[in-house]
Amino acid sequence: MPEGLKTLTRYTIEEEHRHPGSSGEFSALVNVVATATKIVANQVTRGAIAGSLGTMSEPDNLPPTVHRRLDAITNDIVVAETQWTGHLSALLSEQMPKVRAVPRTHRRGKYLLAFDALDGSSNIDVNLPVGTIFSVLRAPEELLAEDAREPAPLDFLQPGTEQVCAGFTLYGPATMLVLTTGDGVDGFTLDREIGAFVLTHPRMRIPEDTSGFAINAANDRFWERPVRRYVHECLDGVNGPRGRYFNMRWVASLVADTFHILTRGGVYLYPRDTRPPARAGRVSLLYGANPIAFIVEQAGGAAITGSERVLELKPEDVHQRVPLIFGSRNEVERIERYHREPDEGPSFDRSLFGTRSLFRPGGH
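That's the Fructose-1,6-bisphosphatase class 1 sequence above. Prediction below.
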């Protein structure tokens, strides 16, 4: 390890020392989650090999399944590495239809863990970046009493402002861990020579202004007018109302686009749309939008659903999905203003190809 770099273990211990009376449980939990993501990183680098290996026992002693998908394998890794530690009372994930209580055979702790073990798993086949997203909440007091009840979905239905920690791991050319505990955002790189995450991106900040945005342009016809207005103004470039050129990109990996915005700035849009069946949004709130919004805000950016701050939403269901727009603060605030005035602004051409479109009706 290069001289002067700080490991995640040292980082979390030093953070504990800044808070007299800390039990050490939280820093231990962070390191346990980091260990789980290192194991996931190893599986991801094996790609299709890991996704089609032999048989593995399903949770709850169900019969083994052959050719398990990699997202199911990684989900089991996170569960297996975290539920025995004594730091958690329950877990929630993309892959589990119900809240999973820590077994009575293990000591239950004062935290809840919500996670997506393999965000962007559809990218595995084409070898694009994927990642793990996680959020830590405090367990209600009644889960910690001697006569504690069983954990329930209601325990996880806390607004994002109640998160005590959020982070994601990006499995790309390097394995990166990005973390916030409510006091800024720090980025760590996995040093495979020593098997530890080391601090490489301290105090990450998102520039307030940007000339880049990420959106799936193929869904243009389904967007609501405020989003179409914003995107078309950007595409009009130097001749449009924004007076400058913008770049557009879309990786279809939330963690990859988030890391890009954290390091270079930009705006990510996965907005509400009108595709059937009608749904309010496509990004999971508890283990997607909330942890990403927490990180983004702590890095100086903003995160909204369109007209609402993500972190202030009161969850209604553990697998609730919402629209998600986040990134450089000034651009996000502009998009929020457009949602407050949906009928304002000049008329604009619906086609992404504008006046150059081969499909634009003649005479217009």
